[in-house]
Design goal:
It contains 4 helices and 6 strands; from the N terminus they run ααββαββββα. With 183 residues, it is an alpha+beta fold. The protein has a single domain, classed as Nuclear Transport Factor 2, Chain: A, CATH 3.10.450.50. It is globular, with a radius of gyration of 18 Å. The N and C termini lie far apart (44 Å).
Length: 183
């Protein structure tokens, strides 16, 4: 089976969009604001219901203090469905976030599930979200016991000292998918 150039372009576009969704999650987990913003065009509009409505930069201003309180954080995208129409696209992605908060009165774990309904545009060859609606499925917070990790574990960090930043930085920089800042 041979794919046409148009079919190959659709595959490349879908992969680029999925990569940007993963960059968004990695940016939140590593507290790398520029990386998180790389998924959005500068004029993107975000709607998180009663919690937040505004631009991507305003969203980062709003969410950052909450994420800074977390000692461990993992944001995952699954079941990502993408449709391409030329320089426009739409995606529905399931999101799962878990955060550990080490508070003075004990550790808490927050879990949240939902979906991102994103509208995308390709501008100057770069895909970016122009509109996001976050649809909430459920959230749970509970007290937890025990350490976040054992001494034998390689610990993740919530910044650029995380081991992933040492993983072939030249290769990641050359790929360029997640390199555009909106600030």
């Amino acid at each position: 089976m041979t794919l046409s150039d148009a079919e190959m372009q659709v595959i490349a576009d879908k992969l680029a969009i999925r990569d940007l969704l993963h960059c968004y999650c990695r940016g939140l987990d590593r507290m790398d604001r520029a990386l998180a913003l790389s998924a959005f065009h500068a004029n993107a509009e975000l709607d998180y219901g009663a919690s937040f409505r505004g631009s991507a930069v305003q969203f980062m201003d709003w969410v950052w203090p909450n994420h800074e309180r977390g000692t461990r954080h993992s944001h995952n995208i699954t079941n990502c469905y993408v449709e391409i129409d030329g320089d426009r696209a739409a995606s529905e992605s399931y999101s799962y976030m878990i955060m550990r908060l080490d508070l003075p009165n004990g550790a808490m774990q927050l879990q949240s599930n939902g979906r991102y309904l994103d509208e995308w545009q390709r501008r100057d060859g770069r895909w970016g979200i122009v509109r996001r609606q976050s649809v909430h499925e459920f959230q749970d917070m509970r007290r937890i016991e025990g350490p976040a990790a054992t001494k034998r574990d390689t610990l993740a960090t919530r910044d650029t000292s995380d081991p992933s930043y040492a993983l072939s930085p030249a290769l990641f920089a050359a790929a360029g998918t997640c390199s555009s800042s909106q600030e």
